[in-house]
Amino acid sequence: MTRHGTLADQLKGLRLYASTPSHAPEPLQTNWSLVAANDNNPEDTEGMTVERRWRMKPSIEEIMRQVEEGDIERSDSTTELVTYNGVQHKTHTVRGPIVRIGRLRFSDGTQTERGHKLTMDGKVVAAQIRMPVGAMLGTKDAAESQLGAEEDSQHVTASNRYFADLMKTLPHRYRPGGKRRPGQNYTRAESIAMLADAKANTDMSKVHFTRYPDGLPCGSQKMADVFPGMVKTQQGESGSLAWQDIVIAKADRDVWAATVAALSVKDRQVLDRATTARNFEELGGSAPKRTAIRKGRRALMAANDNLMSAIKAYAA
Questions:
Q1: CA-CA distance, 291 to 295, in Å (whole number)?
Q2: 163, exposed or middle or buried, with CB in 10 Å at 0-12, 13-18, 19+?
Q3: Distance between CA atoms of residues 296 and 291, nearest Å
Q4: In 3D, which of 34, 55, 45, 54 has the Cα closest to residue 232?
Protein backbone atom coordinates (compact mmCIF):
# COMPACT_ATOMS: atom_id res chain seq x y z
CA MET A 1 0.00 0.00 0.00
CA THR A 2 1.35 3.40 -0.92
CA ARG A 3 2.03 6.14 1.56
CA HIS A 4 -0.80 8.36 0.34
CA GLY A 5 -3.22 5.42 0.34
CA THR A 6 -2.46 4.71 3.99
CA LEU A 7 -2.97 8.37 4.89
CA ALA A 8 -6.32 8.44 3.08
CA ASP A 9 -7.47 5.41 5.07
CA GLN A 10 -6.46 7.08 8.32
CA LEU A 11 -8.36 10.29 7.49
CA LYS A 12 -11.76 8.64 7.19
CA GLY A 13 -13.25 11.11 9.64
CA LEU A 14 -12.09 14.07 7.53
CA ARG A 15 -13.66 12.54 4.42
CA LEU A 16 -16.97 12.15 6.26
CA TYR A 17 -16.74 15.72 7.54
CA ALA A 18 -16.17 17.10 4.05
CA SER A 19 -18.81 15.02 2.25
CA THR A 20 -21.70 14.81 4.75
CA PRO A 21 -24.41 17.40 3.90
CA SER A 22 -25.72 19.60 6.70
CA HIS A 23 -28.98 20.57 4.97
CA ALA A 24 -32.31 18.78 4.80
CA PRO A 25 -32.64 15.95 2.25
CA GLU A 26 -33.53 17.24 -1.19
CA PRO A 27 -36.58 15.76 -2.99
CA LEU A 28 -35.72 13.25 -5.68
CA GLN A 29 -37.15 13.35 -9.19
CA THR A 30 -38.58 9.87 -8.79
CA ASN A 31 -41.24 7.95 -6.92
CA TRP A 32 -38.91 5.08 -5.96
CA SER A 33 -38.27 4.27 -2.34
CA LEU A 34 -34.98 3.29 -0.74
CA VAL A 35 -36.90 0.97 1.59
CA ALA A 36 -38.15 -2.25 0.02
CA ALA A 37 -41.92 -2.52 0.34
CA ASN A 38 -42.12 -6.31 -0.24
CA ASP A 39 -45.87 -6.07 -0.79
CA ASN A 40 -46.07 -7.24 -4.40
CA ASN A 41 -48.93 -9.66 -3.97
CA PRO A 42 -49.73 -11.32 -7.33
CA GLU A 43 -53.41 -11.54 -6.36
CA ASP A 44 -53.59 -7.76 -5.95
CA THR A 45 -52.08 -7.02 -9.37
CA GLU A 46 -53.95 -9.73 -11.27
CA GLY A 47 -56.08 -8.31 -14.04
CA MET A 48 -54.44 -4.87 -13.94
CA THR A 49 -53.47 -3.68 -17.39
CA VAL A 50 -52.31 -0.43 -18.95
CA GLU A 51 -54.29 0.93 -21.86
CA ARG A 52 -52.27 1.84 -24.91
CA ARG A 53 -52.97 3.90 -27.98
CA TRP A 54 -53.54 1.55 -30.92
CA ARG A 55 -52.43 2.76 -34.32
CA MET A 56 -53.97 1.28 -37.50
CA LYS A 57 -52.80 2.56 -40.87
CA PRO A 58 -54.79 2.94 -43.03
CA SER A 59 -57.81 3.30 -40.79
CA ILE A 60 -61.08 1.47 -41.40
CA GLU A 61 -62.71 4.73 -42.49
CA GLU A 62 -59.94 5.34 -45.05
CA ILE A 63 -60.27 1.79 -46.42
CA MET A 64 -64.04 2.13 -46.85
CA ARG A 65 -63.66 5.54 -48.52
CA GLN A 66 -61.14 4.21 -51.05
CA VAL A 67 -63.31 1.15 -51.77
CA GLU A 68 -66.34 3.35 -52.48
CA GLU A 69 -64.61 6.11 -54.44
CA GLY A 70 -61.32 4.73 -55.76
CA ASP A 71 -60.71 3.07 -59.13
CA ILE A 72 -59.60 -0.56 -59.37
CA GLU A 73 -56.41 -1.69 -61.05
CA ARG A 74 -55.40 -5.28 -61.79
CA SER A 75 -52.16 -6.84 -62.90
CA ASP A 76 -51.75 -8.21 -66.42
CA SER A 77 -54.17 -10.97 -67.43
CA THR A 78 -52.89 -14.40 -68.44
CA THR A 79 -54.29 -16.96 -70.87
CA GLU A 80 -54.27 -20.66 -70.04
CA LEU A 81 -53.32 -22.96 -72.92
CA VAL A 82 -53.89 -26.72 -73.07
CA THR A 83 -51.98 -28.98 -75.49
CA TYR A 84 -54.09 -31.82 -77.02
CA ASN A 85 -52.75 -34.11 -79.74
CA GLY A 86 -49.89 -31.69 -80.27
CA VAL A 87 -52.20 -28.74 -80.78
CA GLN A 88 -52.50 -25.91 -78.25
CA HIS A 89 -56.03 -24.93 -77.41
CA LYS A 90 -56.96 -21.70 -75.59
CA THR A 91 -59.20 -22.44 -72.66
CA HIS A 92 -59.89 -19.12 -70.88
CA THR A 93 -58.26 -15.89 -69.79
CA VAL A 94 -57.34 -15.49 -66.12
CA ARG A 95 -57.69 -11.97 -64.83
CA GLY A 96 -54.80 -10.69 -62.73
CA PRO A 97 -55.18 -9.99 -59.02
CA ILE A 98 -56.17 -6.54 -57.80
CA VAL A 99 -53.07 -4.47 -57.08
CA ARG A 100 -54.66 -1.09 -56.38
CA ILE A 101 -57.96 0.36 -55.14
CA GLY A 102 -57.66 4.14 -55.05
CA ARG A 103 -54.61 4.81 -52.86
CA LEU A 104 -54.63 1.30 -51.37
CA ARG A 105 -51.90 -0.99 -52.70
CA PHE A 106 -52.03 -4.78 -52.76
CA SER A 107 -49.47 -7.47 -53.46
CA ASP A 108 -49.45 -9.56 -56.60
CA GLY A 109 -47.18 -12.11 -54.96
CA THR A 110 -43.85 -10.55 -55.89
CA GLN A 111 -43.54 -7.73 -53.36
CA THR A 112 -41.70 -8.03 -50.07
CA GLU A 113 -41.77 -6.02 -46.85
CA ARG A 114 -39.31 -5.81 -44.00
CA GLY A 115 -40.14 -7.96 -41.00
CA HIS A 116 -38.69 -10.52 -38.60
CA LYS A 117 -38.45 -14.30 -38.70
CA LEU A 118 -37.16 -17.16 -36.57
CA THR A 119 -33.99 -18.95 -37.60
CA MET A 120 -33.25 -22.63 -37.12
CA ASP A 121 -31.61 -21.98 -33.74
CA GLY A 122 -34.59 -19.94 -32.46
CA LYS A 123 -33.14 -16.44 -32.94
CA VAL A 124 -35.19 -13.53 -34.26
CA VAL A 125 -33.58 -11.80 -37.25
CA ALA A 126 -34.70 -9.11 -39.66
CA ALA A 127 -35.68 -10.32 -43.12
CA GLN A 128 -37.53 -9.39 -46.28
CA ILE A 129 -40.80 -11.34 -46.17
CA ARG A 130 -42.75 -12.03 -49.37
CA MET A 131 -46.28 -10.72 -49.18
CA PRO A 132 -48.97 -13.14 -50.37
CA VAL A 133 -51.28 -12.28 -53.22
CA GLY A 134 -53.94 -9.79 -52.12
CA ALA A 135 -52.08 -8.60 -48.98
CA MET A 136 -52.38 -4.85 -48.36
CA LEU A 137 -49.02 -3.11 -48.56
CA GLY A 138 -47.72 -0.37 -46.29
CA THR A 139 -50.02 -1.13 -43.34
CA LYS A 140 -49.38 -0.64 -39.65
CA ASP A 141 -51.22 -2.33 -36.80
CA ALA A 142 -49.38 -2.03 -33.49
CA ALA A 143 -49.63 -0.62 -29.98
CA GLU A 144 -48.02 2.74 -29.38
CA SER A 145 -47.51 4.81 -26.23
CA GLN A 146 -49.52 4.39 -23.05
CA LEU A 147 -52.74 6.29 -22.71
CA GLY A 148 -52.11 9.07 -20.25
CA ALA A 149 -54.37 11.60 -18.54
CA GLU A 150 -55.72 13.33 -21.62
CA GLU A 151 -57.59 16.52 -21.02
CA ASP A 152 -60.63 15.64 -23.15
CA SER A 153 -63.92 15.27 -21.38
CA GLN A 154 -64.28 11.56 -22.14
CA HIS A 155 -61.17 10.53 -20.19
CA VAL A 156 -61.85 13.00 -17.39
CA THR A 157 -65.38 11.61 -16.97
CA ALA A 158 -64.10 8.03 -16.96
CA SER A 159 -61.45 8.91 -14.36
CA ASN A 160 -63.98 10.66 -12.10
CA ARG A 161 -66.36 7.71 -12.40
CA TYR A 162 -63.55 5.38 -11.32
CA PHE A 163 -62.92 7.35 -8.11
CA ALA A 164 -66.66 7.60 -7.38
CA ASP A 165 -67.08 3.83 -7.75
CA LEU A 166 -63.96 3.12 -5.71
CA MET A 167 -65.06 5.29 -2.78
CA LYS A 168 -68.78 4.52 -3.14
CA THR A 169 -69.81 8.16 -3.38
CA LEU A 170 -72.22 10.18 -5.48
CA PRO A 171 -71.15 11.00 -9.05
CA HIS A 172 -68.71 13.84 -9.20
CA ARG A 173 -70.03 17.34 -9.91
CA TYR A 174 -67.69 20.17 -10.77
CA ARG A 175 -68.67 23.64 -9.62
CA PRO A 176 -66.21 26.37 -10.55
CA GLY A 177 -65.61 28.78 -7.70
CA GLY A 178 -66.26 32.48 -8.02
CA LYS A 179 -64.03 35.33 -7.06
CA ARG A 180 -62.94 35.30 -3.45
CA ARG A 181 -63.97 38.30 -1.45
CA PRO A 182 -61.23 39.88 0.63
CA GLY A 183 -61.74 39.30 4.34
CA GLN A 184 -60.01 39.67 7.64
CA ASN A 185 -57.45 37.16 8.82
CA TYR A 186 -57.78 35.91 12.38
CA THR A 187 -55.18 34.38 14.64
CA ARG A 188 -55.67 30.98 16.21
CA ALA A 189 -56.57 32.50 19.58
CA GLU A 190 -59.13 34.82 17.99
CA SER A 191 -60.70 31.94 16.07
CA ILE A 192 -61.01 29.85 19.24
CA ALA A 193 -62.63 32.78 21.08
CA MET A 194 -65.10 33.39 18.23
CA LEU A 195 -66.04 29.71 18.15
CA ALA A 196 -66.60 29.67 21.92
CA ASP A 197 -68.87 32.75 21.66
CA ALA A 198 -70.86 31.13 18.85
CA LYS A 199 -71.39 27.98 20.93
CA ALA A 200 -72.47 29.99 23.95
CA ASN A 201 -75.02 31.99 21.91
CA THR A 202 -76.49 28.97 20.10
CA ASP A 203 -79.44 26.97 21.42
CA MET A 204 -78.48 23.44 20.46
CA SER A 205 -82.04 22.17 21.04
CA LYS A 206 -83.24 24.22 18.06
CA VAL A 207 -80.41 23.25 15.73
CA HIS A 208 -81.29 20.79 12.95
CA PHE A 209 -78.59 18.77 11.32
CA THR A 210 -78.83 17.52 7.76
CA ARG A 211 -76.51 14.73 6.73
CA TYR A 212 -75.74 14.65 3.04
CA PRO A 213 -74.54 11.55 1.20
CA ASP A 214 -70.83 11.07 0.77
CA GLY A 215 -69.42 12.87 -2.24
CA LEU A 216 -66.22 13.98 -3.90
CA PRO A 217 -64.82 17.53 -3.79
CA CYS A 218 -66.57 19.79 -6.29
CA GLY A 219 -63.79 22.34 -6.57
CA SER A 220 -61.58 20.22 -8.83
CA GLN A 221 -62.56 19.17 -12.33
CA LYS A 222 -60.37 16.04 -12.24
CA MET A 223 -60.35 13.79 -9.19
CA ALA A 224 -56.94 12.49 -10.23
CA ASP A 225 -55.51 15.87 -9.17
CA VAL A 226 -57.04 15.48 -5.69
CA PHE A 227 -55.58 11.97 -5.16
CA PRO A 228 -52.07 12.20 -6.65
CA GLY A 229 -50.94 9.16 -4.69
CA MET A 230 -53.37 6.97 -6.65
CA VAL A 231 -52.17 8.13 -10.06
CA LYS A 232 -49.06 6.96 -11.86
CA THR A 233 -47.12 10.00 -13.04
CA GLN A 234 -44.96 10.24 -16.13
CA GLN A 235 -41.25 9.70 -16.07
CA GLY A 236 -39.28 12.80 -15.15
CA GLU A 237 -41.99 14.51 -13.15
CA SER A 238 -41.17 15.79 -9.70
CA GLY A 239 -41.61 13.36 -6.83
CA SER A 240 -40.72 13.11 -3.18
CA LEU A 241 -38.79 10.78 -0.95
CA ALA A 242 -40.69 8.10 0.88
CA TRP A 243 -41.50 9.03 4.47
CA GLN A 244 -39.21 6.28 5.78
CA ASP A 245 -36.29 7.76 3.87
CA ILE A 246 -37.06 11.28 5.11
CA VAL A 247 -37.20 10.13 8.75
CA ILE A 248 -33.94 8.19 8.44
CA ALA A 249 -32.21 11.11 6.72
CA LYS A 250 -33.34 13.57 9.40
CA ALA A 251 -32.27 11.23 12.20
CA ASP A 252 -28.84 10.78 10.59
CA ARG A 253 -28.52 14.55 10.19
CA ASP A 254 -29.37 15.14 13.86
CA VAL A 255 -26.85 12.52 14.99
CA TRP A 256 -24.18 14.03 12.76
CA ALA A 257 -24.87 17.55 14.06
CA ALA A 258 -24.59 16.31 17.65
CA THR A 259 -21.36 14.50 16.81
CA VAL A 260 -19.77 17.62 15.32
CA ALA A 261 -21.00 19.73 18.25
CA ALA A 262 -19.17 17.41 20.65
CA LEU A 263 -15.81 18.42 19.14
CA SER A 264 -13.76 21.24 20.51
CA VAL A 265 -13.62 24.59 18.74
CA LYS A 266 -10.00 23.93 17.77
CA ASP A 267 -10.81 20.58 16.16
CA ARG A 268 -13.72 22.06 14.17
CA GLN A 269 -11.50 24.90 12.94
CA VAL A 270 -8.84 22.44 11.82
CA LEU A 271 -11.39 20.30 9.96
CA ASP A 272 -12.94 23.36 8.32
CA ARG A 273 -9.56 24.56 7.07
CA ALA A 274 -8.63 21.04 5.94
CA THR A 275 -11.57 20.90 3.51
CA THR A 276 -9.99 23.69 1.43
CA ALA A 277 -6.27 23.42 2.33
CA ARG A 278 -3.84 22.26 -0.35
CA ASN A 279 -1.21 20.82 1.97
CA PHE A 280 -0.24 20.36 5.63
CA GLU A 281 1.71 23.59 5.62
CA GLU A 282 -1.47 25.66 5.40
CA LEU A 283 -2.73 23.97 8.57
CA GLY A 284 0.46 24.61 10.56
CA GLY A 285 0.06 28.36 10.83
CA SER A 286 2.85 30.91 10.69
CA ALA A 287 5.98 28.81 11.20
CA PRO A 288 8.92 27.58 9.16
CA LYS A 289 7.93 25.20 6.37
CA ARG A 290 8.99 21.92 8.00
CA THR A 291 7.62 22.97 11.37
CA ALA A 292 4.31 24.06 9.79
CA ILE A 293 4.00 20.74 7.94
CA ARG A 294 4.67 18.78 11.15
CA LYS A 295 2.26 20.88 13.22
CA GLY A 296 -0.45 20.79 10.54
CA ARG A 297 -0.22 17.01 10.18
CA ARG A 298 -0.34 16.52 13.96
CA ALA A 299 -3.36 18.84 14.33
CA LEU A 300 -5.26 17.20 11.49
CA MET A 301 -4.65 13.66 12.75
CA ALA A 302 -5.75 14.69 16.25
CA ALA A 303 -8.96 16.32 14.98
CA ASN A 304 -9.66 13.29 12.77
CA ASP A 305 -9.18 10.85 15.68
CA ASN A 306 -11.40 12.94 17.97
CA LEU A 307 -14.14 12.99 15.31
CA MET A 308 -13.97 9.21 14.83
CA SER A 309 -14.17 8.73 18.62
CA ALA A 310 -17.28 10.94 18.77
CA ILE A 311 -18.88 9.00 15.89
CA LYS A 312 -18.24 5.67 17.62
CA ALA A 313 -19.66 7.08 20.89
CA TYR A 314 -22.92 8.15 19.24
CA ALA A 315 -23.15 4.94 17.23
CA ALA A 316 -22.94 2.91 20.41
A1: 6
A2: middle
A3: 8
A4: 45
CA 127 to chain centre: 36
pLDDT per residue as tens digits for the range 245-287: 777 777 888 888 888 888 888 888 888 888 888 888 888 877 7
pLDDT, tens only, 128-178: 989 898 888 888 877 766 655 455 667 788 888 888 888 888 888 888 776
Q: What does each C-alpha distance from 234 to 36, 52, 145, 157, 251 come to in angstroms?
A: 22, 14, 12, 20, 31
| Closest-CA residue to 94 (of 80, 81, 106, 108) | 80
User: Could you tell me if 16 and 10 are in contact, meaning their C-beta atoms sit under 8 angstroms apart?
Assistant: no
